[in-house]
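In practice, a research group might receive sequence data for several interacting partners and want a quick structural hypothesis before committing to experiments. The following worked case mirrors that situation: the sequences arrive first, and a predicted assembly follows.
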Amino acid sequence: MKRKAFALVAALAAFGAGTLSAPVAAQQEGDQFFPLLVYRTGAYAPNGTPWANGKQDYVKYINATGGINGVKIGWEECETGYATDKGVECYERLKSKKPSMIDPQATGITFALTDKAPVDKVPLVTLGYGLAASQDGGVFKWNFPLMGSYWTAADALIQHLGKKEGGLDKLKGKKIALVYHDSPFGKEPIPLLQKRAQMHGFELVLLPVTAPGVEQKATWLQVRQQRPDYTLLWGWGVMNSTALKEAVATGYPREKLLGVWWSGAEPDVKDVGANAKGYSALALNPHGTDSVLIKDILKKVHDAGNGAGPREEVGSVLYMRGLLISMLSVEAVRTAQAKFGKGKVMTGEQVRWGLENLNVDEKRIGELGLAGLIRPIKTSCNDHMGSTSVRIHSWDGTTWKMQPDWYEADKSVIDPLVKEAADKYATDKQIKRRDASDCAA
Amino acid sequence: MLYRENGQFKTSYAADQQIFPIAQDRLAIGLLLLVAFVVMPMAGSEYLFRAVLIPFLILALAALGLNILVGYCGQISLGTGAFMAVGAYAAYNFMVRIDGMPLIGAMLLGGLTATVVGVLFGVPSLRIKGLYLAVATLAAQFFTDWAFLRISWFTNNSTSGSVSVAGLNVFGLPIESPVAKYLFCLTVVCVFALAAKNLTRTATGRQWMAIRDMDVAAAVIGIRPVYAKLTAFAVSSFIVGVAGVLWAFVHLGAWEPAAFSIDRSFQLLFMVIIGGLGSIMGAFFGAAFIVVLPIILDQVPHLLGIPLSTATTSHLVHMIFGALIVFFLIAEPHGLAKLWSIGKQKLRLWPFPH
Amino acid sequence: MMMNDMPQAVQAQEPTQVSGRRIGDVVLDLQNISLSFGGVKALTNISFDVREHEIRSIIGPNGAGKSSMLNVINGVYHPQEGRILFRGEERRRMEPHMAAAQGIARTFQNIALFKGMSVLDNIMTGRNLKMKCGLLAHALYWGRAQKEEIAHRVKVEEVIDFLEIQDIRKTPVGALPYGLQKRVELGRALAAEPNLLLLDEPMAGMNVEEKQDMCRFILDVNDQFGTTIVLIEHDMGVVMDISDRVVVLDYGKKIGDGVPDEVRANEDVIRAYLGTSH
Amino acid sequence: MGFFLETLFGGLMAGMLYSLIALGFVLIYKASGVFNFAQGAMVLFAALAMARFAEWIPKWLGFDNLILANLLAFGVAMALMVVLAWVIERLCLSKLVNQEGITLLMATLGISYFLDGLGQTLFGNDIYSINVGMPKEPAMILEGTFQGGLLISKEDLVAALIAAGLVLALALFFQKTTTGRALRAVADDHQAAQSIGIPLNRIWVIVWSVAGFAALVAGIIWGSKLGVQFSLSLVALKALPVVILGGLTSVPGAILGGLIIGVGEKLSEIYLGSFFGGGIEIWFAYVLALGFLLVRPQGLFGEKIIDRV
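A structural hypothesis for the assembly, expressed as tokens:
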């Protein structure tokens, strides 16, 4: 036994020396490299997996259709398990391959990478998550919370509630509860909600749920006790379905329950089924298989036997979000190529420029095969978000039904908050706000 | 044949009480330090520093601290992550609240704060033993997890509850590049490893081990259990706290309480046990095993060109990792350090086995 | 341990003939000690004293309460009733380490060495009370701390020489044979330079030679250092040979007390021993 | 008052489930001296097996009957747990006899890593559902007595009843049957048990199978409530304060401890939580147990540890 142990240690050590000194090189020379941080295991796997598949499928789709102006995309997945230290390890491992950008796929990892990215010149694409303040490109040169942050999400939800009540002023005296994942992800919307509560005179009740969120009995008993007029759900992973089940078990009307866009996908309601009928959540992106793009992906990727996940999953909410992340990253590379040279491999810095000068207008959306499904996205030096448009979709017991109204975050509410938080960050980190010349470059 | 102590006679007790009484060992450790301090910074890649060596060093330090408590004093703790967190958040607060607080100062103060909290949670050890104590230390884990999330003062009222530090320097030298970070961690680890070794080979260490091996007999020869147990908690938490500061400041840069979750506590306990209880070297072996092995296993299918999905790889890594732990526990319950010393013993006699 | 083989042993040597040794005043006086565990009486109303420099033995059948008696003396157990006077002062409830601080050392019936440590380290722990350096000095191991360690190492080496265990000083105690472990345990107690030494069956499980060695060490300790010794031993020959006075316990009660000859003649003692021997 | 009763009731329901998981710990600890950290992984593994087989078996055999599918899946999952117990005994425990508690604890942590990986490799890592026909909608009772009535979750009630029945059955098994008595004999003294002719190996396989059974039932109940996915393995953490509160070696301790912790944490969260900012139940349970241990180091019903020298 001892001898075997020795042999094993020796073998592992020898092998270790080999692998650590020669990092994996999977992509081919001359590819535009997309590192794909994912989590397909652990407590958040059910939600992370379709997201990861969407990211991967779009990359494969682009390669199947000739690349970005002829430049193929090299990619490699790295499993983080939603753990920050694993995420950092993945980042460091993939960094040496000159990544175009990185989507950490977790708020915690985003925080850890926000300091490293500027040093390594890797843009962070955090579509719909990450640091709300990083919308401010003047301070956060390398962060791109495209299409929305937790503040724009919270703002849209309050606007939606105002609309339901017949005007924001009708929220006065109402009680709104926030059931949130007790982590930076869940806490981000609180400052905005507090500001809105002050503006409209509603009472905000904060109910934290300890991660991962399998134990919510006490939380929902409190909901039952406080009887809020509306309850906002800010969960991720298993917390969402558990919340819905507890809402059912305590008889809280699902119609009064509204989720953020991370609480409104198929894995969240699948297991609750008909009992979740009436529940609504923000829809950051469209879903379904009707669009030109999805039909094309099914044909060129899945029919060719290249699909990352099962065929049924294509078009689901989180799959589409992953798809959009890759799509916008590809668009950024395309934009960069238009300036720095078509058909060339772009560096991280050039892609960053592309992300900052994105202009996906209606025409381009049509070309991308998503006509009418998303709103135009236009970023700038100061605005790294590009769009705050969002819709609501409701669960009818079997599918998510998109509602027609678009909401935009109220700039007069969001902007001062963003500015304040970004300035505080800049002071803490001793960063100077970028001036006009830096923007022009 | 080369590894012999024949002819090396000790003429004084001081010489006999050296850490490495055998000349070849002194040479080996000298070479190791030379490689670590001089060769590595010149030859290592950035990935090696940031993703492998820095986390390895910091977690080895934390395991060293834990080993003092578990390996030397016999008090099991499942709350190590908590003491790392206390160190990290305390140091953060000293940094942001006191102008001009140097990194080293914040680090030591963070360690001291962890000491205070560690001693506080060590008090139950005076009455509770073994597994009961192990589970009781989970109270520390869950309480600090909660406190750093919930009490916004600790995070300097950060809206998200995540905090970050920047512009680290020691005596004016910036600790920004991977090499600088690596050297800083390496220095801290070497200093603490030496101090820990000194503690464990003198009266303090003997008191800890006496309490571990037979607490009643220890009391009968005049060792105060209160003192021995609480100093073990204090020293252990101090080192663990400093490791927490390094993990947060140097390795992560920005962090949230999840960085010091219960998984971290288990991970450190694994390191200590796989590496070898009651052995300074064991902490390093254990950290190497636990930090490096999953990274290697992760890359194996890729290297061999086997098209496994990320999820499958990750699950297989879990399985192999778990199986290896059980295997090593069966093969050598006293850990890799014991295996190492058996190996050395054999080498001493080689090539004549008797 | 039959009573009838004792006379020969006694004839071989007169018990109180140890040279150059003066029995002094009473150092330890136990008065009316009673101890019980959850209603079960372990000791009932026991009184006896120990004089300076003497070898005082406690004998009795298994379960008579001998080890409990030692545990009372060094503070492991706390009697519910009775007074303990140590050097003329009444002792309050105390913990074992305080007893050690007053110069009481002991060995155990079932060896209580620190298994994970070497012989040297085990004996070094005996010096613990005499070492003054603190944690920080130890961590630095520089100057005073190093000097102190070496000074005490010298003392410990004396003990090692005395017990003739030089060749095993670096061996982990767990790897030693039983007889040597007993010797190391004695060494640990001696390293504390006690003035009262409690020995709980130091010769149990030994062969004849080992017993002779151990007897010699005990007598030498008593002779050279003037250490007062309280001894529990089953081997009657040994007890009657080396003891100055003997206390006999049975079922937690004292049934005899006096010099060996007196005890040997005591009717109760004979009855108790015959009752339990085969 | 009505709300207090609802909270109390909710706590009792949750507590009953904690008891069930705690029982798994106690059984194994009693019979083999192993503090089994893999209990959580076993819950996940068992639940995954149950969920997937209930889905697969009708497909393979081509029938469509929920009850039959569940019964068959239960049988297969249970068989799997027995095989697992046997493998664990063979490959792991039998080789670690007479090792210290901490080594055994670490081994079970290794086992738990292995099971997490194995379970998800074999059965997938999505959310799966177990449908054993638990009622989901709440019931209102005593509407006359309290304003708004008392809300009782029917699902919790059924779950608690099943858990209570099982706990009772296991307690009886331990106290009344020959095998149960043999298990206790092993706990008291390994050598003595062997010398009167009880094969230790078989005892261990049995006790791990019983723990597997407890894990399977816990997995079904929790899985039906929460959906079967990775987080299930974390519910075991909730049972640890229960075990130390009740005493590692006591079956009644596990039951009572579970109820105390369940009620304690719900009441504390609702009535004290707001003073601290909420989310306190996770540490409150541990602090409660810790405080209790300071008064009684061996737990409620644990055996008192006396140092002998």
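Before designing any experiment, note the following. Chain C has eleven helices and ten strands. The interface with chain B takes residues 74, 76, 95-97, 99-101, 105-106, 108, 112-117, 121, 124-129, 131, 133, 135, 138-141, 145-146, 149-150, 153-154, 157, 188-189, 192 of chain C (CB under 8 Å).
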